[in-house]
Write a structure and sequence with these properties.
Layout lengths: L14 H4 L6 H11 L8 E7 L5 E7 L7
Antiparallel strand pairs: 1-2
């Protein structure tokens, strides 16, 4: 992630795990990252997505949810 100046080990993706799943891929990847313990309260999370044609979107959020047991 050169633009954000972050190393690849700070990213999370699931395309290799589940393949292309359409718009639900963001939620599936978020769930997988949470399940693997990659998010802590206060972390900044950047969501990036692309769609048909030239449709692109990105959002920056601050993760506030705490782990549940």
């Amino acid at each position: 992630m050169v633009v954000l100046e972050q190393p690849l080990d700070r990213t999370h993706w699931t395309m290799d795990k589940w393949g292309y799943t359409g718009s639900v891929c963001i939620l599936m990847t978020l769930y997988d990252a949470v399940a693997r313990g990659k998010l802590r309260p206060g972390d900044h999370v950047v969501f990036c997505a692309s769609g048909g044609g030239l449709a692109l979107a990105a959002a920056l959020v601050r993760w506030t949810m705490k782990e549940t047991t």
